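A further point concerns the way the authors explain their paired sequence and structure data. For illustration, here is how one protein appears when written out as sequence plus structure tokens:
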Amino acid sequence: MTNESDASPRQSLRGFVFAAPWNLLLLTAGALLVGFAVKSVAVPHGLLTGGVSGLALLSYYLLPALDPGIWYFLLNVPIMLLGLKLVSRRFVLYSLYGMAATSLFIDRITYVLPVADPWLAVIACGVALGTGIGVALRSLGSTGGADILAVIVRERYSMPIGRFEFLFNLGVFALGLAFLKLEAVLYSVAMNFLVSWVADACLTLFSERRMALVISERPEAIVQAILHSLGRGATVLDARGGWSGEERKVVLTMLNNLEMKRLEELIYTIDPDAFTIMGSGFYVLGQGFSKRKVY
């Protein structure tokens, strides 16, 4: 359990995260980054960004009568209809806003990033695009395109979004080989690795939790310290030593990254001989942590 005074701010924060203004802000920021990556970096260097934006760029390179933003909007229409059928209406409406904002930014941005080295362009485009996708997907929507398909696949088959984006983009690049120079496609493939990594990093940046198992002669004192000093919950498990056969109590708790050092200090202040196991990489849903996001 957590203290009432600690639980209330956390509940307010989770309520804010699921509110419309915050989600629209995330979508706008993500759309701006995607638009910058496409118009300021990818187009001047003839790169394919992958996803539906990559298909839009490929269409633009072949038929430049329509701007990349318009191509992006047109290609998104059937995907939006599919999302309306397979995902929630709320997700599609948010994604419709994200897609429209992305199309607008791609159409309106005129700034060109002043880099001549193609590898610097690959890095800049990959980081900006991956961050834009990741930021947008931290909302209850997306910037449209392959992001919608990625959410559908994740919800149904638990495939990470970055991995789906990578596989989808391989198809886009294979298509690009038929119309673009091999060098440009290879640069784009390298950029795709970076986009996938950055997008997944953005999605897990504040969601990763750490588990601690504490074996101590003073388990109750450690539990009280966790409850009152950290404001986190704790579970006491019954255990038995494999070699000694002695009955022991094991304290289990879940914390965020910032709280781990505080926990360590508390434990070894109470019991310098405690045995502690800390694991990372856990995605935790429930009271005091992330609320389940339903698309």
